[in-house]
């Protein structure tokens, strides 16, 4: 199981939100490049980037910073937030990003996702963000009535890079992952799944590893690393 450290960005700064709430933002003094280099030096193979203002506004806000980051740090990156059209997808993937995450647009425009997967097989990931099992979109600010499992099933395609499942009410809380919803997703699809939200300890990562047989590929960890609860290098060593 791979451990994927996260870097969330607002106005060029590294931040963490609490339960996806923009009014509960914590900023960190280090730069995105410093954080990415540290993650790389600790052994990260893939770094998860989120353009938070992009996710909320519907258009990328950190594109220049992100594409420069790819050039400066020799590690694979995946990016989500504000990616709603093929031009942006192409710009990121042709600019060196390993994988692009589509969330809101996957809810609204299945045809665009189909085109993206055909053009970039294995490099498109669906981001499913849920509150109490229901999909949320537009930077987590708009709740829908669509069940997360139903959305996952729409995109259970062999050329999809995978699904990232985030339980919003756990994100940034350090209260542990929401295993019931995760298991529902794992049992519903054949594509690889990555867990996100609430992970606070190495023990929780080890518990998630038991889900590998159901198709869990990895876990995204953010705040627990920044707050010193998980040492990334140790987690990578133990779980690889």
Question: How are the SSEs ordered, and which strands pair?
Answer:
Elements: E1 2-10, E2 13-18, E3 21-27, H1 32-41, E4 46-51, H2 52-57, H3 63-72, E5 76-80, H4 86-94, E6 99-102, H5 104-108, H6 110-119, E7 124-131, E8 134-137, E9 142-147, H7 148-154, E10 162-167, H8 179-188, E11 193-196, H9 202-209, E12 216-221, H10 223-226, H11 232-239
Parallel strand pairs: 1-4, 1-12, 4-5, 5-6, 6-7, 7-10, 10-11, 11-12
Antiparallel strand pairs: 1-2, 2-3, 7-8, 8-9
Helix pairs in contact: 7-8
What does this structure look like?
By secondary structure, this protein is an alpha/beta fold. It is built from eleven helices and twelve strands. The protein has an eight-stranded parallel barrel, surrounded by eight helices. Helix 7 packs parallel to helix 8. The chain is globular, with a radius of gyration of 16 Å. The N and C termini lie close together (6 Å). The mean pLDDT is 95.
Strand order of the largest sheet: 1-4-5-6-7-10-11-12
Question: Which homologous superfamily in CATH is the superfamily?
Answer: Aldolase class I
**Helical content (DSSP H or I, runs of 4+):** 25-40%
Overall structural domain count: 1
Overall average pLDDT = 95
The percentage of residues in β strands lies in: 25-35%
Q: What gross morphology would you assign?
A: globular
First CA to last CA: what distance?
A: 6 Å
Number of helices, where a helix is a run of at least 4 consecutive DSSP H or I residues = 11
Features:
alpha/beta, 36% helix, 240 residues, 11 helices, TIM Barrel, 30% strand, globular, 8-stranded parallel barrel
């Amino acid at each position: 199981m791979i451990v994927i450290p996260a870097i969330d960005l607002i106005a060029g700064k590294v931040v963490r939100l609490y339960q996806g709430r923009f009014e509960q933002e914590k900023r960190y003094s280090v730069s995105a490049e410093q954080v990415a280099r540290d993650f790389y030096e600790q052994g990260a193979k893939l770094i998860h980037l989120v353009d938070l203002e992009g996710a909320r506004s519907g258009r990328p806000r950190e594109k220049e910073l992100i594409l420069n980051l790819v050039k400066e740090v020799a590690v694979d990156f995946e990016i989500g937030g504000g990616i709603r059209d093929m031009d942006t997808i192409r710009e990121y993937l042709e600019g060196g990003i390993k994988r692009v995450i589509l969330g809101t647009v996957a809810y609204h425009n299945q045809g665009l996702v189909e085109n993206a997967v055909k053009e970039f097989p294995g490099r498109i990931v669906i981001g499913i963000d849920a509150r109490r099992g229901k999909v949320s979109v537009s930077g987590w600010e708009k709740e829908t009535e669509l069940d997360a499992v139903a959305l996952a099933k729409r995109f259970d395609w062999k050329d999809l890079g995978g699904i990232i499942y985030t339980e919003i009410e756990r994100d940034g809380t350090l209260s542990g992952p929401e295993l019931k919803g995760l298991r529902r997703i794992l049992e519903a699809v054949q594509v690889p799944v990555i867990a996100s939200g609430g992970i606070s300890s190495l023990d929780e990562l080890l518990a998630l590893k038991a889900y590998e047989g159901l198709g869990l590929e990895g876990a995204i960890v953010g705040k627990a690393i920044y707050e010193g609860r998980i040492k990334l290098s140790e987690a990578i060593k133990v779980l690889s």
